[in-house]
Amino acid sequence: MSRHLRRALVGVTAAVIALLSVGPSAQAHGFTSTVYADVASGEVGHIRTKLKLEYDLFVVSAADSEGDDPLFRTGNAAFEDGDTGAQAAALNAHAESAVSYVTKRFSVTSDGAACTPTQVGDFTMGRREGVPYADLLLDWACPEGGGDREVRSELFPDAETYVTGTKTIVTYEIDGRSGSAALDAGHPSFSMEQSWYERFWEFFRLGAEHLLSGIDHILFLLALIAGSRRLREIVLAATSFTLAHSVTFMLAALGLVDVPSSVVEPVIALSIAVVAGWYLWQIRRRGGHAADLDPAPDLDPDLDLDGTAGRGHFGLDRAGRLRLGVVFCFGLVHGLGFAGALGIDEAFSWTLLWSLLVFNVGIEAVQLAIIALVFPLLTVLRRRAPRAGLWATGVISAGVCVMGLVWFAQRLFGL
């Protein structure tokens, strides 16, 4: 094996080891939270915001920040009992602490001048992603003559250590303008005067970052790449995966599909193991011919790679078509995982649906970039050093399969 090929092989293996060493802490679906904020015009010079905050996180964070131990005791007891009436009562009994926590971290400004918040009505309760959410309505009195309105959210920051990577999804309809934005620690504020391409970039970036920070989805993609014997196969597999997760992603956004994360997350982990294990089984069954495009020496040359005559749709053999179907089915589940990343469990406005499509585009851009980077390297390795290529793809698949099974057990049994 040449020095260049050895270096390429070491590079591929090192990349896999680095990804696997990240472990469950870097999964796309860890301890995160999403805040929802609806912004609308109020009376003259006023803005109304309706905030939806994950209840148990809200109680813990507010009680800790404001030093309100009774809020923690009563709020946590109501959460454990699953009593929504008691949950709302706990927040309303300690409204000063709860509202203070929010208004110190969520703000509205008009031409750079701070608007003054006032709570409207009591806290009420709802549910998202199967967990209770607290609803808080605030009226913001803004200075007269204000123009550029800006929203800033730093709710549930990483520094509190309860969750990481909190997102605030904002939808607004004010002064004839409407749109949506995604805020996080790196981009905590936005102007409601922003242009359409700035709104596009917000959700494109969010989608790209979601896939890059989601080691489980990256490993699934690596398993697809390692098990694909030629460019057509990986393109079809990636397209099938894209179509499938786009379907369920949008069905969830339209409120037509709602599957609990307790079901979705273990299946996502299992899909990683199955797709990687599929290629390992091919290696065991066909040995050094697992990646061959031509019939194996012991097969009739008129037969396909799996011993069946001819090739079917898309120029794939029977194994390739079956693999494509499996990828599509798992893609449907991954779409629910992407939807869960934004807490989607009810129909959104059409404005936000457009933004969610852009979120999906961001995911696809990263997916295509990974394919463009990894697949040519493996192709060169397979052609110039077939045994080394088989060894490299086998190592990748074995590592991915093991990690998928570990995650499946962790998510299934809550370890």
Key phrases:
alpha+beta; 415 residues; 55% helix; 12 helices; seven-stranded mixed β-sheet
Shape: elongated
Distance between the termini: 43 Å
How is the quaternary structure best described?
A: single chain
Contiguous low-pLDDT stretches (5 residues minimum) are 4-30, 293-310
Report on the architecture of this protein.
With 415 residues, the chain is an alpha+beta fold. The strands form 2 sheets. Strands 1, 2, 5, 6, 7, 9 and 10 form a 7-stranded mixed sheet that branches. β3 and β4 form a beta hairpin. The protein is built from 12 helices and 11 strands. α2 packs across α5, α7 crosses α11 and α9 packs antiparallel against α10. The protein is 55% helix and 16% strand. The longest helix is centred in the C-terminal third of the chain and has 35 residues.
Please give the structural blueprint.
Layout: H1 3-22, E1 34-41, E2 46-54, H2 55-66, H3 69-81, H4 84-93, H5 95-103, E3 106-110, E4 113-114, E5 116-119, E6 124-128, E7 131-141, E8 149-153, E9 167-174, E10 177-183, E11 189-191, H6 196-212, H7 215-226, H8 231-253, H9 261-286, H10 318-341, H11 350-384, H12 386-413
Parallel strand pairs: 1-9
Antiparallel strand pairs: 1-2, 2-7, 3-4, 3-8, 5-7, 6-7, 8-11, 9-10
